[in-house]
Amino acid sequence: MNKPKLIILDDYEGELAKAPAMTRLRELADVTILNQPLTPADDPLLRETDYLIALRERTQLDRAFFARCPNLKLLLQTGGHAYHVDQEAATAQGVIIALGRGRTTKPPIVVPELVFALLLGLIRQIYPLHKQMQRGAWPQLIGGSLHGRTLGILGYGRHGKPVARLAEAFGMKVIAWGRTTTGDNAVGTIDEYGVARVPLDEVLARADVVSVHLRLSESSKQILGYAEFKAMKPTAVLINTSRGALIDEAALIRALQEGEIAGAGLDVFAVEPLNACSPLRTLPNVLLTPHVGWQVQDVLHEFMAIATTQLEAWLAGQLPPVEVLNPQLLKI
C-alpha cells in the first residue's frame, strides 16, 4: 500500500531534515522537505499531499493556500499558536489543525536566554566594542551592570516567569504586568518569588529594562506606542522577543532617535523580514536578531518528534482533541 504524502514547509536551515525523529516519520509517510518558500511550481506537490508540517509561521496559510491543497487532511503546526493560519478556511475544507507545543519536555528557556543575550549586549555595549576592536582599536567605552536595576516584565507567563528567575540571578529587582488582572494576577499581588504585579504605567515609570512577553491579539496590537516610550526612563532599554506587532515600530524609532529611551534589543518586527531600509538597522542604540528566539537545534528537533508522535496518533485514530484548534472536525 502506498504511504500517505506529507510535506514539511520552510526548513530553511536544513535542521528538521536532520532531526532524529525523521527516520520514524519516513516510516509513516512519503516525506518531502521544502527548504525554500513555496512557489507556483510546488502546486502539483501540494495537490497530492495528505499531511502538512508547518514550521512556526513562516508561510501564510490562508484560504488561497488551502485551495492549493485539496487532499489535505491534517496540519501539524509546530509551536503553540497558529496566528498565520486561516482557521475558518481550514475548517471549511475539513483540515484539522493540531498544535505542537502540548507535549514538549523542554523547559521554556530558549527565549529567556535570548532576552539576556540582547540585554547584556546593550548594557555592556558588546557589539560596538567588538566592532571597534575589529578595526584595530582598544576602545574606552564604559558599559553598565544589571545588578540593582529594575526589570519590568509585560506578560508574566510561559516566558516572562523564567526571565524573572534569570533576572534575580543577576541581582535585578523584578516587577510585572499582564493583561489578566484577576486572582493571582491581580495588581498588588506578590508571588512566591517576590515579584509584584503592578499597573502598566508603573512598570513603565519604574523599570530600567522593559521586556515584552505578551500574547498578540487584536487588543494587544501596538500596546506600546510613543506615549508609553515617553513614560519610560530616558536611561531605560526595551527588549522584545514576543511579537513585533505589539509595538508601534515607527513610534519606537522616533523614541530611540529622540532619546526618550536609551536602547532596544529586538528579535521580532512588525513585518518580517525587516525592511532593508528600516532605520532600526542603523541606529547605534539598537541590537537586532532575525526572530531566532525559539530557533535552536534542540527545539527544532523536538518539533519534529512531537509532530511525528501526533501523526502516529492520528493514523491510529487517537489524536487528542486538547491539541486541536478545530475539534468539531474530529469523529469522537
Strand percentage lies at 5-15%
CATH architecture tag of the largest domain: 3-Layer(aba) Sandwich
Rg measurement, Å: 22 Å
Order of strands in the sheet with most strands: 8-7-6-9-10-11-12
Mean pLDDT: 93
Helix-residue proportion: 25-40%
Number of domains: 2
The geometry reads as globular
- Class of the largest domain, according to the CATH hierarchy? Alpha Beta
Summing up helix and strand content along with how strands pair, one would put the structural category as alpha/beta
* SSE succession: EHEHEHEHEHHEHEEHEHEHEEH
- For this entry, what is the oligomeric state of its chains? single chain
Question: At the third CATH level, what is the topology name of the largest domain?
Answer: Rossmann fold
What's the number of extended β-strand segments? 12
Described by strand count, sense and barrel closure, the largest sheet is:
7 strands, parallel
What's the helix count? 11
Q: What ranges have pLDDT less than 50 throughout 5 or more consecutive residues? A: none
- Distance, first to last CA: 27 Å
Q: CATH superfamily assignment of the largest domain?
A: NAD(P)-binding Rossmann-like Domain
